[in-house]
Amino acid sequence: MSDNDQQELSFIARMHRDPKRRRGIFLLPSLFTVANLICGYYASVAALIGGNENFDHAAKALGIAILFDSMDGRIARMTGTNTEFGVQFDSIADVVSFGIAPAIVAYAWGFRSSFAAMDGFHQLGEFAWIACLVFLICSAWRLARFNVQGMEPGGSKNFLGMPTPAAAGVVAAIVHARHWIGPIADRDWAVLWFLLLIALGALMTSKVRYYSFKDIPWARKQPSVTIILLGLLVAIVWKYSEFVLVIFACSYALAGISLHVVRFLRQHLVPRTA
Asked: Which burial class, exposed, middle or buried, applies to 72 when counting CB atoms under 10 A from its CB (0-12, 13-18, 19+)?
C-alpha cells in the first residue's frame, strides 16, 4: 500500500471517529477568509476594467485583503476554532488574493492599459506576461512551503521567505501611490516594474528571514500611551496613505534583505574567537 493510500485511509478513519467534523465549519474565521477571497476577486475585476479609479480600488482591495488575512488565523486561535479545513481554505484564498490578483493588477497597470494597443511593444508584453507568471508561481510555491514547513525552524518569530501578503502589499502600495498620475506609460519604467515583480517572487521563495509580528503581546496590558501612538499611526496612514504605505511596504521588504546580509557577513567575515 502506498503512502498516499495510507494517508487517505487514515483521514477516512478520523472522519468516522469524529462525524461532527463532516457536518460543518466554524463560521467566524471562515467569514474573514471569504472576505479575503472576495477582495482578491474584486481587485482582479477592477484591474481588468482599467482606469485610474479602478486601479486605485484594486490596490485598496488588496490592502483590505491583507487585513482580513491577518485576522482570520488569529481569531481562529483565540476562539479555539482552528481546523485543518480552515488552514487549507485560507491557503487557497491567499493564492487568489496574493498571487493571482496582484499578478493581474501588475500586468494590467504596467502593460495592458498603456502599451497593449500600441505597435512595437510585443516583446514588452511577453516579458510582462512572464514576470507576472513568475510572481504567481512563486507565491503559490511560498504558500505550499509554509503549509509543509511552517515558520522558521526553531521558533515562530520569523517567516522563511517574504510572506505573500507582504509581496502583494508592495504591488498595491505602489499602484495606490500613483493613482493620481495613472498607469506606467514609459517603456523603461515598465521594464523596472516587471523586474520588481520577479524580485518579489525571488524573495518569496528565498531563505531570507522576515519578522512575523506573531510574538507581539496583543492580549496583554500595555502602557496607555500605546493607544495614542496607534491612533496617530492610523491617522497618518489615512491622511498620507500614498506615501506612508509605500514606505512601510518597501521598508519591510528591504529589512529582510539587509538583516540577511548582516547575518551573512557575521558568519563568513567576522573572525570566530576560540
From this structure: buried
| Cα(146)–Cα(166) distance, integer angstroms | 14
Cα 84 to Cα 89: distance, rounded to the nearest angstrom:
9
As assigned by CATH, the class of the 24-268 domain is: mainly alpha
Q: Left (φ > 0), alpha (ψ -120 to 50) or beta: where does 182 sit?
A: left
Helices (H), 110-186: 122-149, 164-177
Residue that the C-alpha cell 521563495 belongs to: 205
Nearest to 88 by CA among 2, 10, 11: 11
d(CA 132, CA 118): 20
Q: What is the CA radius of gyration of the chain?
A: 21
How far is the C-alpha of 183 from the C-alpha of 181, rounded, in Å? Answer: 7
Higher confidence at residue 5 or residue 252? 252
Cα–Cα distance between 129 and 197 in angstroms, integer?
11
Give the residue extent of every domain in the chain: 24-268
DSSP code for 96 = I
Please state, rounded to an integer, the average pLDDT across all residues of the chain.
Answer: 85
Q: Is the dihedral of CA 161, 164, 166, 172 positive or negative?
A: positive
Predicted pLDDT at 155: 55
Q: Is the pLDDT of residue 218 over 80?
A: no
Q: Please tell me which residue, 225 or 99, carries the higher pLDDT value.
A: 99
Residue 183, judged by CB atoms within 10 A of its CB (0-12, 13-18, 19+), counts as: buried
Q: What is the pLDDT of residues 17-52, one digit of tens each?
A: 554 444 556 777 789 999 999 999 999 999 999 989
Global pTM?
0.83
